[in-house]
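Annotators were shown the component list below and the corresponding predicted structure, then asked to write short factual statements about the assembly.
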Amino acid sequence: MDKSWQIVVMYILTHLGLLFFLYPANIIESSSEAQWIPIVIGVILHFVIVLIYLKGLSYFKNKNIIDIYSSFGKLWTILLLIPTGLYLLMINIIMVRAYSEIINIIFLTKTPLWAVMLLILSISCYLSMQELSAIFKTGFLLSFLFLPLVLFVIAISFQNVDWRYVIPIWSSDFSFIKKQSYLNSYFAIGGGFLFLGFIQPVLSFRNTRILIGLAAIVPAYLLSVYVPVLTFGQATAETFIFPYVAAVDGINISWLMFDRITMFFLLCLITFIMLFIALVLWKTVRITKYYIPILSEKWAAIGLAFFIYCICLRIPNWSDAERLFQINTPLRFYVILFVPLSIFGLGLWKKRKEGVNG
Amino acid sequence: MNSFIGKIKDAFQGNDDFFCKKQIICGESVFVIGLDSLVELDKTLGELKEYKVIEEIEQHGEELADIETAEASLLEGKLLLARTNKDLAISLVPAPVSLNRSIESSSNENVVLGSPISFNEDIKLNIGLVRKNMKSQHLKVKTYEMGKQYKKEIALLYNQEMVHSELLSKIQDQIAKFMNQAELECIQDAYKMLGLKKWSFVTQINTTEIPDEALRAIGKGRVVLFIDRLSLALILPGVLRDMIFLYNDHNYPYPLMLSVRLLRIMGILLALIIPGLYVALVAVNPEVLRIEIALSVAQSREGVPYPAIIEILIMLLILELILEASIRLPSSIGPTITMVGGIILGQAVVEAKLVSNLLIIILAAATIANSTIVGFQNSISIRIFKYLIVFLASLYGILGILVGLFIICTYLASIETFGIPYLYFNLNKGEKSSG
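Structure shown to annotators:
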């Protein structure tokens, strides 16, 4: 059944969730001027990879990547499926830990961290135990409830903007490519699109519509970085852990009864993140289930969530959480580059073989 | 007296409404047998005596030779005619004692624009009401007799052209499986019959007493189930849109219809969120409010001796009690409860500094918002979901509210009735768009 719009909505929601917290700080830290260059490079890379991935998947009608790799033999599953599974597990650990810390820093200073992590994980686990279509339908419903608020806050976040901070527009300094913080920014770019390979044949989609989703998210990349830069200027923006949050915190709307409109904005994004965590957990369960077929999916989800929770409890502070981002970097690039490329390559190979045989 | 009559007399021994009288009809001596609680005897005899020969009467009836069918037809309200020289009886449809209400306007669902007539207990009449409004050969009526001990007629109505074939066949399979397994008395029995989950917090069978709504559901490809002596149409499957959309909304001009429906959506959201928001803002995240408002909130709570969650739970409990009490009481005493409740909630509690007066406003708003939801059974679902949000808000503040909404969304998304998700908005055959 064609569920393109649900998938597009899911794509937009998860990326919005990923973008506004850590991405701006990473970009601002990595380049001191003309931030649009690193952003655009990232976005182009993202587009290219997703296009290759989609093209590759279109060679295999109604198959997910687990089916594809397993149909080409054990070696492929060991080379690609296991790293993907590990990467997804790590994403989950990082996300739960980092976002619980963010919640703790920004609005629940008195609530213990373990309670916040428990909440996020248990609810994501509950969602991931449902059927896949239920996950996407939840996303659709959430977009009705929360997306208007998010768009409203994005629209008013220009309140304190000073356009002179745009200058200088060009910079020939490309040293950011080697910086760790820039590589960390790919956390928001990579990983979000992998689900496209997992959802078939339960949900099918049209590639052109997915591209609309891809295009819709591009302004968000630029806004998340440029709003804080234009509000505070580069030098000040660099000092914040969450520059966009700080920029939105400064907004003052006289007709609203709430002082901190950010609260609602950020919490909406947190629900999108929970959606993302549930989706990643679901993918991890799929891979685990492939290797341990006797395991029931519900118990696998609960087991994985418990494992993630235990690991998260072992990470004592924010700097250790940031170290995880670094450790994760090689695996991240391995997965986001080689999974799409290998699917594309295998697709071409299959097509050529069928061409010869037929 | 022949053995047939003797057996029937034995079977109905101890029933004082049973009669077996000797009468001369068309010059022949016959026994008329029946239950005078169901048969109007004098009127029926008057009609019978107009016939010239008894064979003419026998042509109208049905011959019954075995005792079980004779008993069943007596219980259905038929009259038996037994000739003294024959060992069989003829069952006739007599003039019945009127046990049905006439068609009245609906008492539990209000219709502002459109016809207010409602279904009643007689299944034939209910089917007739649908038939009268939907003159189409595509409307199909299938009747079944259900029940282990007490037989009960049920009827499935659907539009052959529009209905989801999968939905229909699943329902029919379930009915065939259940046929003589257990009794079918109430909607919970219907859940059991259809194999639906017992622990469902939303209604998977939507009910209505307005024929227009049932018609619309049939037209949209859903299946309507009538149970004899239940004055409701059960619409299968229940979906989220039943909480928001009424067919009668189409009697408004289009923009007005949209605004009315938008209002109901806001009603649902407000009823869910406001009590939780109060707890979150007072107890966990007061910094979200403007300082002026935060101060006046704090001032209104001055002297209240317990935390916000206890305060709101006490008041919610009282409010739920008032709602339930006003249903239970006869309508002549009902206003008393409203008045007493109003005084307790409105004035005395605040003056006694047991709760803040802001809370009274919050609860009033939430209750009013809750009443905008279509269908009483649906509004109870929302009332229950509200507590989830209140509890989460007391622990996690505003995060708790959003997480609560997230859980509710997940729950609603996970419900499927006969393969049709609860969130389907458009049930037309072929186009399964969702939302």
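Statements collected:
1. The mean pLDDT of chain A is 87.
2. Residues 4-357 of chain A form a domain with the Amino acid/polyamine transporter I fold (CATH 1.20.1740.10).
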